Amino acid sequence: MDRRQLIKAGLAWPLAFADGAAAKDPIYIADMHYHLLFLGPNSASTRPLAGNMAGGQATLVAWSLVGDLPWLAATPRGFKQAGVPGAQDTVNWLQQEMQRVKAHIAEQKLKIATTPEHVDAALRGEPHVVLAVEGASFADDGIAQLQAAYDMGIRHIQLVHYIRNAIGDVQTERPRVGGLTDLGKRVVEECNRSGILVDLAHATSDAVAQALAISKVGMVWSHSSVTRTRRPQWTMPVTQSRQLALEDAQAIAAKGGVIGLWALRSDVGATPEAYADRVSELADWLGEDHAAFGTDMNGLVAPALTGFADLRRVVEHMQRRGIDETRIRKLAIENYARVLRQAMEARQA
């Protein structure tokens, strides 16, 4: 891609902000949970990542590879397990798909965030992608697979998703192990040791409590929403069972963690402005250091946000409301950057 193409794609962001305060100190954007598939609408071929990120000045995006996708089926009650992976199947899927992910990132001339210095560069406006995996079923084949994931460049791992694995219970199925298994607890410890951020999304309340008791660094709940009125149960509709109880969110925050708000229209509202108000409310509940964007874009049937330009509208709405700029920066990028950086820095040689 030559300079003319870069400018056309919107990658020469400083040129667009040559005048005014934005040129001096723009507010960049992070997303703790973003999907980009290679088939279907909004695929990597039809909506490549660099232009999408540039459209919203997103500089720190966790591209979450769905680690159990081949064994899922869509049902009226949401995604359900439709098959059982054999030995090495989840490992092979991770390896193959991660090669495709990295090839697209290279093609887009983007950088992968693997070190604290890369996170710092993203905070300064240099676009970086965080390699993430949703569902650590690949670790069922042995704890050594975490080192293999680290070697691939993965720095953000969600313990569970929709299929049953050997790590722990998921929100949308009847609990069977009482939270985390012994392997699940070892996975949390090994992620700490390796410098990988632990993501608790989709895990049950018991699993969250056990992970919090183990982890030496803050963790994230990358996507969904927080409820103050119910205790989510697996028997509820998926939009309710997938929520996080306020007391669990507060416990994650108390350990230095961050909660991401998804962009599910039926939950947060139909517009970027409604999303902005909900994430501001989340910051009121948990403290402004503990809320962030975790959109789940391309993973939702009816989203309020469809691209990073919509997240730019979220920031602009906060600015129009007169929300303090320090608070906006924390919600937009700094909270995720902080907890990701801390996880990386905790790596033990």
Characterise the protein shown here:
- There is one protein chain.
- The protein has 349 residues and is α/β, with parallel strands linked by helices.
- It has helices at residues 3-9, 13-16, 21-24, 49-56, 89-107, 116-123, 144-152, 182-194, 205-214, 238-241, 246-254, 265-268, 272-286, 308-320, 325-345, and strands at residues 29-34, 58-66, 72-75, 78-81, 111-112, 128-134, 154-158, 197-199, 220-221, 226-227, 244-245, 258-261, 291-293.
- The longest helix has 21 residues, at 325-345.
- The chain is globular.
- The strands form 4 sheets. Strands 1, 2, 5, 6, 7 and 8 form a 6-stranded parallel beta sheet that branches.
- The termini are far apart.
- It has a single domain (29-345), classed as Metal-dependent hydrolases (TIM Barrel), CATH 3.20.20.
- The model is unreliable at 1-23 (pLDDT under 50).
- The second-level CATH architecture is Alpha-Beta Barrel
Helical amount: 40-55%
Q: Report on the biggest sheet.
A: 6 strands, parallel
Tell me the number of strands: 13
Instruction: Enumerate the spans where pLDDT stays under 50 for 5 or more consecutive residues.
Output: 1-23
Radius of gyration: 19 Å
What is the global morphology?
globular
Name the structural class: alpha/beta
The DSSP helix count reads 15
Cα separation of the termini: 38 Å
The CATH C-level name is Alpha Beta
What CATH calls the topology is TIM Barrel
**Average pLDDT figure:** 93
SSE series: HHHEHEEEHEHEHEHEHEEHEHEHHEHH
